[in-house]
């Protein structure tokens, strides 16, 4: 792994740890529309043997994806990426949330779900990690569902901060104070927009919405929630600052608590890829066929992800990769290839901007090989 490649998204931390090839165990279950049968596949992969599972589902029922990628190509590219980056050792687990510091830093899973509901998974795709900041995308979708894009834009904004995701100075300096829905301040304000008679109703609404986007029931990882709730003084400070500027729309500490819960929702790489594929598929979950995000909201969400999905590395990410994506300090990143599908990668060690090192490398590699860069006219077939 050349240092040029591994440093191109952001400055990386110095510490490197050897990451031996590991045993991967994967399992996935997929629901087909109108088909109550569940299919379970378990594959045990040894350190020497890598298995890729790729399941085409209800291909004939799918009409919305003339551009979904070819199976053989994706399969070989993902295998290559897994091999190429499995021993990458740069980065460190997030440690400002104590739970995250002790997650096995060698975990590594890749999942792709296409808009015609083909699923390809490799590595630790069964491990449930906290969604963290990736949740911000889906709370934004829910806020837009309730308020519409214009009001959401007016109350939160959509400008890059050029600062760390939890920056206090950004709140003071930005004319909107909230910045955008994908930094902590803007995300807490977005959570505060969700309606409900009390905190429980708001939280359940958010969790149910995420579950519909994933196409299966998601749950809170209680240990993550407790760990973060015990240490989130910075987010509480952001919420109070927002209150000073009148840019938070419910009780500040209640909003931080709901936000902390949404960040503690557990997802595995397969579920995260399906959430991404729902965005890639105009808001229709490709596994359940349900329209869960409004079609007209999707471009706003993807634009916001392009602009701020990887925080202050977003410009560099757009330059190199050209796909809307969102990272979380739990080690997940999901990237969207509109109309085609989504790739989710989970690997806990992060760079200094808070983005998974391996996930960035894998997505960059796969996106280049599959010609996914949104800004390249050849990505839509122009020769
Ligand atoms: N829950 C985390 C926080 O508020 C989310 C940050 C992230 O994933 N970048 O700090």
Would you kindly provide a written description of the structure presented here, covering whatever features stand out?
- The protein starts with a helix and ends in a 14-residue tail after the last helix.
- A 6-stranded antiparallel beta sheet has the order 3-5-4-10-9-8, with helices on both faces. A two-stranded antiparallel ribbon has the order 1-2. Strands 6-7 form a two-stranded antiparallel sheet.
- Strand 4 and strand 5 form a beta hairpin.
- The model is unreliable at 1-51 and 54-63 (pLDDT under 50).
- With 383 residues, it is α+β, with helices and mostly antiparallel strands.
- It has helices at residues 3-7, 71-85, 98-101, 135-147, 149-156, 168-173, 184-193, 199-214, 222-229, 233-244, 252-263, 269-280, 298-308, 314-320, 357-369; strands at 24-32, 35-45, 53-55, 109-114, 119-123, 129-130, 266-267, 325-327, 332-337, 341-346.
- The longest helix is centred in the middle third of the chain and has 16 residues, at 199-214.
- The protein is globular and about 55 Å long.
- Helix 2 (71-85) runs antiparallel to helix 15.
- It binds glutamine.
């Amino acid at each position: 792994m050349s240092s040029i490649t591994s440093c191109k998204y952001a400055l990386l931390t110095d510490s490197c740890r050897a990451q031996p090839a590991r045993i991967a165990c994967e399992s996935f279950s997929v629901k087909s529309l109108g088909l109550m049968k569940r299919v379970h596949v378990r594959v045990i992969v040894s350190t020497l043997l890598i298995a890729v599972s790729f399941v085409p589902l209800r291909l004939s029922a799918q009409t919305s994806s003339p551009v979904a990628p070819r199976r053989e190509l994706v399969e070989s590219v993902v295998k290559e990426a897994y091999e190429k980056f499995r021993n990458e050792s740069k980065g460190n687990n997030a440690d400002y949330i104590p739970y995250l510091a002790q997650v096995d830093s060698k975990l590594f899973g890749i999942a792709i779900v296409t808009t015609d509901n083909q699923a390809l998974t490799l590595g630790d795709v069964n491990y449930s990690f906290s969604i963290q900041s990736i949740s911000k995308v889906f709370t934004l979708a829910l806020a837009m569902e309730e308020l519409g894009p214009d009001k959401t834009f007016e109350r939160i904004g959509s400008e890059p901060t050029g600062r760390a995701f939890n920056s206090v100075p950004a709140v003071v300096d930005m004319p909107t104070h909230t910045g955008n829905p994908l930094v902590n301040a803007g995300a807490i304000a977005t959570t505060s927009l969700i309606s409900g008679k009390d905190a429980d109703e708001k939280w359940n609404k958010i969790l149910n919405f995420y579950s519909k986007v994933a196409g299966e029931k998601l749950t809170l990882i209680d240990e993550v929630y407790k760990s973060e709730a015990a240490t989130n003084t910075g987010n509480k400070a952001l919420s109070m600052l927002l209150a000073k500027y009148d840019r938070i729309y419910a009780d500040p500490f209640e909003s931080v608590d709901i936000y902390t819960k949404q960040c503690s929702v557990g997802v595995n790489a397969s579920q995260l890829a399906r959430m991404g594929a729902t965005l890639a598929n105009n808001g229709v979950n490709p596994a359940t066929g349900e329209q869960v995000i409004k079609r007209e909201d999707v471009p706003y969400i993807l634009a916001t992800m392009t602009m701020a999905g990887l925080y202050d590395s977003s410009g560099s990410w757009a330059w190199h990769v050209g796909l809307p994506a969102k990272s979380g300090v739990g080690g997940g990143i999901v990237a969207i290839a509109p109309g085609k599908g989504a790739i989710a990668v989970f690997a806990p060690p992060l760079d200094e901007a808070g983005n998974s090192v391996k996930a960035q490398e894998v997505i960059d590699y796969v996106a280049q090989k599959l010609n996914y860069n949104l800004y390249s006219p050849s990505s839509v077939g122009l020769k």
